Amino acid sequence: MTVPLKVATVQFEPTMFEKERNIARLEALVGKAASAGAKLIVTPEMGTTGYCWFDRTEVAPFVEPIPGPTTERFATIARAQDCYIVVGMPEVDAATNLYYNSAVLIGPEGVVGTHRKTHPYIAEPKWSAPGNRGHAVFDTPIGRIALLVCMDIHFIETARLVGLAGADIICHISNWLAERAPAPYWITRAMENSCYLIESNRWGLERTVQFSGGSCVIGPDGAIEAVIDTGDGVACVEIDLERARARRMLGEAVFEQRRPELYMELPTNTFTWNPLDFFSLYGHRPLPKGRRSQVAVAQFAPTGDANANLDRIEELATEARAAGAELVVFPERAVTGLDAPAAVPLSGEAVARLIAIATRHGLHLAAGLAEDDDGTLYNSAVLVGPQGVIGRYRKTHLDASDHNWATPGDEWGVFDTKFGRIGLLIGHDAAFPEAGRVLALRGCDLVLCPAALRGNLTSAHAGTAISQNYPIPTGADPHHWHLMRARAGENNVHLAFANVLDESAGYGGKSGVFGPDTFEFPRREAILGAGEGVAVAEIDTSNLDTPYPTNVVRRKDLVTMRQPHHYLPLIG
Fold it and tell me: Where is the CN hydrolase domain (predicted)?
């Protein structure tokens, strides 16, 4: 077991045009953390200068090279206190005179390494260039440390790159805004990569922009281990790096279970061109027209009796239809049961009965089952309608229990329907950020996820004292973070997640239908917080009759802003 490491997050409100005051105040806060025994201390993005600069001319008096006068001031503290400090600052490259939004790791030996923000927010192109140093992990006597800056963490690839490179800790410095913090993406990136995330965010108001505070330390399981809501301050906590090095998500060895051979799209960007043109090129698989639709998810506890399960599926389908649903998603192996699966062929009686239920109620249904294909068993999901089987997907990322009986699938399930382009995932697949990203890159509007997931998929927020503009919520929320909401938002897709509910066996439900924009409030979603039943929400995959996409599920703004030239290690 490693020796516990004390770390600290610093929250701070800098003042524009007052660089010396900002640095002096940061020195005091860093000194306070070091005096409390912190060996790694993280300060906010652009903490030395403030953030909302109009252009290069305005920020020019405040940029510095790295190393430089500011880094030497913090190196003096690091040497005196035998600690490591992360500082956010505007950097000038002496060779090119380009400016960068940078994070620098400083230790007793001086500058250890620098990360230049690779994925710019709307503000950076006004004065800085995208980072050109990739995503490094720095080996130090206190652990393997990676740096990310604010918008970088919106993209699943950045944290995955440093996770795969062995990061124990991601130091994420930010000027986060427009939602309560700790932000759901921070939690998701820590959990999916099974590493610590030290988040240093600013707070306060600058040029009409309200920043969210919520600086924190997040554990490898996604739990908030220390937090500051509002105001300048320091929060310290001891961490155990062995927890990160175990690389477990929801109890599973996720790094060992990755399928890089299926991720070949990751270093590409299918949304660089107008997707309405790209996906219709050569007349091959143009995007379906799309529409507004009512989609439901159902949660219950399947048994080992397929007929009993199908009876329950029909009851819940009837309930969903009465609530206006046109498409209903049921849990993983909802047809055949979770234990000692009695696998069935797609041409058999069980799937025929599922189609009959769809026909009787005028519905489309997606449900999981154990599939027998001439003696080879798969953990599969089928999408059916009155017209029969529309598509089948075989789970590609098997969990520990699947490995006892199932063969992994080797292709993605993407199907064009009247609801839009649909992608299928099954349970544990959704633990892998690469899976949802591939479906997004293939143009999916809607992802259906039958699941049997154990563990915490949601966490609450007690509310924040930081005021936000209407309609951004600030009060308490029992489902502030939901893993599947993050999966939907990061890929700009609607996502319908139907989980098993069987608390005695550890299956906690929390099924829901989630919208394609994480920062849209009120949220377009429905969550089934407790009990068996259904939840219904409207999705919209339509587009105005224009040459360019008007719907975020077709534009995929976050997908468009990816920087795929950095992502080659993800397929290695």
Answer: 5-241, 293-541
Q: In whole angstroms, give the CA distance from residue 445 to residue 448.
A: 10
Q: Which of the residues 45, 91, 124, 192 is marked catalytic?
A: 45
Instruction: Please confirm, yes or no, whether 195 is among the known catalytic residues.
Output: no
83, 150, 171, 449: the catalytic one is 150
DSSP label at residue 177: B
CA 164 to CA 150: how far, in whole Å? 20
Residue matched to tokens 């490693």: 2
Which is catalytic among the residues 39, 117, 395, 510? Answer: 117
% of the chain with per-residue pLDDT over 90: 98
216 as an active site residue: the answer is no
CA distances from residue 35 to 30, 38, 71, 104, 310 in whole angstroms, order as listed: 9, 7, 20, 21, 63
Percent of the chain with pLDDT over 70: 100
DSSP state of 242: H
DSSP code of residue 395: -
Cα–Cα–Cα angle for 73, 78, 79, nearest 5°?
Answer: 100
Residue 146 bridge partners (DSSP): 137, 170
Are 304 and 370 in contact, with CB atoms under 8 Å apart?
no
Give the tens place of pLDDT for each residue, 109-146: 999 999 999 999 999 999 999 999 999 999 999 999 99
Contacts of 114 (CB under 8 A, 6+ apart): 66, 91, 102, 103, 104, 105, 133, 147
Rg of the chain over all Cα atoms, to the nearest angstrom:
24
Instruction: Give the pLDDT confidence of 443-475 residue by residue, as tens digits.
Output: 999 999 999 999 999 999 999 999 999 999 999
